[in-house]
Specification:
The protein is an alpha+beta fold. It is built from 16 helices and 12 strands. The strands form 2 sheets. The protein has a 6-stranded mixed β-barrel, surrounded by 4 helices. The chain has a two-stranded antiparallel sheet with strand order 11-12. The longest helix has about 40 residues.
Length: about 400
Amino acid sequence: MIRLAFRNLFRQKVRNLITMGSIVFGVAALIVAGGFVEDVFTQLRDATIKSRLGYLQVFKAGYFEFGRRDPYAYLITDPQRLYKRFMEIPSVVDVLQRVSVMGLVNNGKTDRAVMVEGVEADKEVALSSFITIIDGRALTGKDDMGVMLGEGVATALNLKPGDVVTVVGSTTSGAMNSLELGVVGIFRSFSKEFDARTVRIPLATAQSLIDSAAVHSFVFSLSDVAAVAGVAEYLKLSLAPKSFDFKTWLDLDDFYPKTVDLYKSQFGVLQLIILIIVLLSVANSVAMTANERVGEFGTMRAMGNTSRQVYVQLLVENGLLGLTGATLGVLFGIVVALSISKFGIPMPPPPNANAGYTAYIRVVPLVCVEAFLVGIVATIVSALLSGIGPTRKPITDALRENI
């Protein structure tokens, strides 16, 4: 039956090539669209993690909910002990300490309220690969009296590298404190809002500003995003729940899951549209081919074949057509994806961002499998619907088609 099916496919070369072309381009379109969406997810995830949040963070219990109102009530006073403990966890590459307090930046003429982040400069450079230095340079461990400004802060205060600013904050005892710092660089992260209200200074400098050696949070750098669940489970079991909280990057940023839900819905609609287009195109071609072969089907039934056998024969032919088209479609889609990815696709800035990015088409095995199945299913469903009438036509009427 399969051998005969192959022979029959070559009898209608032009029409079968058109049908196969519809399948190939439909499958390839699904692979390219799915690869583009996957790249959006991946780049957005990496930008979220590697610009400011890290893979997960540990705070003193209550800080995430109430720390903005009373940050000094949620300081971790024994950071070194916890740091050593965290570094023993498998998959942990590094643990960064941060201090985050509200303060003022003064350029000699005006003030601006900002979030002052005390960071371990050299470690932050390693983690924050998605932070772009648009002017000057990044903070280093040697910049004891340096400050790095978010793009929005620098624009609002008309500051540039080399300028001197005064950072004003309060100590843990409530006294006002100020530091005169030199601007070493201006940065742009993935979040426009973050850049508009954040400045970064060395951790030791921030601790001198608040007059405390404590920290507010630990930021984890892990070997891979897949390790987040394992480390989170370990922290859940090992940390005293009444003393510490931990938040993964997904807990800290709700923009990513909302974006993923949006794109998944859009991609689902796109899949449905492509499936319908392929289905209608293939159904039209299969129906025309089946109607032209009514006389042949009548002859087969007159020679002893049942209408069921003829119908199955037609399904096998179209199944082979779908299998071939889907296979070629997957190969074509992969070639297109890799070709586009060599150059990339310039994209405008996403919501809440200042800079565009370069998109690529990722080859996702699961998307390839789904597209392959779509190609086969569309062809078989078309044959199921289109082959019933021609294969069940009365033999006498079907034989007249040969005249």
